[in-house]
Amino acid sequence: MKADVLVVGSGIAGCAAALAAAREGADVLVVTKATEPEDAASDWAQGGIAVTQSAPEEFAADIRRASDDTADPEAVETLVSESRAVVEDVLLDTLEVEFDAVGGGADGTDSTDAADFDLAREAGHSSRRILHVDASTGAHVLRPFLQHLSARDGVRIVDDATALDLLTEEGTVRGATILADGEVEPVFAGATVLATGGIGDCYARSTNPAGATGDGVAMAALAGATVSDMQYVQFHPTAYDPRTDPQADDDAQPFLVSEAVRGEGAALRDADGRRFMPDVHEDAELAPRDVVARAVSRARDRTGRVVLDVSDLDFREEFPDLAALCDDRGVDLDAGIPVAPSEHFLCGGVAVDDRGRTSLSRLFAAGECARTGVHGANRLASTSLLEGLVWGVRAGETAADRGRGDAEAVEYAPPRDSDPALPDAFADTKFDRLGRTMDEFVGIERTPDGLGTARARLRRLKGEVDAYARTRVSQSIYELRNACVSSLLVARAAADAPSAGCHSLVDPDGSEESDDAGRGVTPRADD
Ligand code: SIN
User: Does residue 440 share a domain with residue 309?
Assistant: First the structure.
């Protein structure tokens, strides 16, 4: 197969890149592992999409503050200054997404004026600026996006297909090999955009859908692209925690309880019923996400359980989708929703510039697999769909410009598939080992010794997986390889970097290595 622009992944960033490239007249091929929209993390996004209102500087300041002042100011400026135009163009004009409105005022509008919309607030935001559809915004954006692209001339979508490796020629990326219908084949492309999402499968507990195996990060790293800020793995403070829910079935799974719930007044309480966040940070439950996640983790360790108390809001009325999920799991809302932090978002990734260009010629990246600099060490809530949209459009336009009419077949060595397939349990067992290692040693708080142990275990695991991958081609073995590579990159980066934002190094005795006082975090030793 050939295409001007190959897009790998079909979340919001991949869709935005495909749309933008097609608008520029490129012939676009989207290759995605997904078979359903809900296979992409974008579809699972609850909170919404933050959009600049009257004070862009205030929005930028919130992003920088949430990032522990490590975000790249120019990248933040790009995100903030383009937010309205891109949301109005793509989401309102093109896809006609019906965000929750006040008094029915937003019907048919093509502007994001605050007066029209029921804007939400989440942790770290100093004002209401989040467009949403109930607490299931992602599905209301991604599904029409996929439908639009499926019907659009110039865009082909191949689903249930796994990108295996990038095709390179003297440092230039010329497409990728893919596995589709059991066959490996090359896709030659003038430009390739990686939009493969995050690394949730590297951890035992994540808010991501299955299949978030760091594919883009690993493929880019293996091809020699620069990858950075991998130590910044964000943990969401409030994922439903079946382990501390007496009502939960044995096989109950965690699910995200949106920050919007805290934005509307829900409180975090420990097992003694104490509301602990006011003692930790002046913004209490609305402190930056990394601060809340660490505090929840410590309160849970100290007292055994943390619940999100929703008694001060009309939870069923304001969050009907979440209330239905809780009912489905048998959560007793009067007792509060049991919560624990869970892996949520990779702030680092394949290093890109303001047009999504990576360090390799003709290779672009957008969305969670890319490191744009917007998030620095910790991402502000409801900026991920926005970043995927802004950088997806920019990467798609630039990739079209670079790749139009330029797909070139190059020599490549197909991977060997000579040995018998491995049983499904093989990948499950290895993923289990990987997840336990990452949770124990590369989680919400890390120690130098723990990171050393993790690196040794991950190297061993990767060695085993590589040995099998040399003679077998399957989606699960490549996902495992990619997850091992991504995990090693996280552990390595974490071992070499001081604490900042969601990367928190603690001494083995439990005291914090870095001075976190500026973020209002109570030192662990005082707990
Ligand atoms: C949430 O709804 O809490 C998640 C939003 C986000 O990760 O930006």
Answer: no
